[in-house]
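Our consortium's second objective concerns turning raw sequence data into structural hypotheses that experimental partners can test. To show how far this objective has progressed, the report includes one record in full. It was chosen at random from the queue rather than selected for favorable results. The single chain below, 148 residues long, was entered without modification.
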Amino acid sequence: MIGTRTYVAKREEVEHKWYVIDATDKHLGRLAAQVARILTGKHKPTYTPHVDTGDFVVVVNAEKIALTGKKLEQSKIYKYSGYPGGLKSRTYAEVLQRRPEHLIEKVVWGMLPKTKLGRAMYKKLKVYAGAAHPHAAQQPEAVDSFKW
């Protein structure tokens, strides 16, 4: 055989790191895209589509996220119970006022695959409204610039 073989990561070999991202004055969509990229593991050279190679992400200061234009008043989050008349909607402003971490969670969930692997990736996302988080023991690495 000529050439090298393609590397395929195995679940046992993957080492998950912890990252902390400060959401202060970051645009929602750009932040969510970078978080989804870290959760899926696409920032690593060992990325394998069918293996969870992603890392843990802690997002702090979710209440200080930036939204451009009229998204606060016009954009909505929908929830449907499955029954007639069971569609509920809230504007981004209402969600930010009640539970700001929910907004980032919903947007990142929309960028992940809707499979068992996507649900496993989503469980590695931790979002907090304020600056404090209980994951100091994991020694998360701060992510300041998005250069990936």
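The partners drew two points from this record. The two ends are 34 Å apart (CA to CA). The chain has a mean pLDDT of 94. Both points have been shared with the crystallography group to help prioritize constructs.
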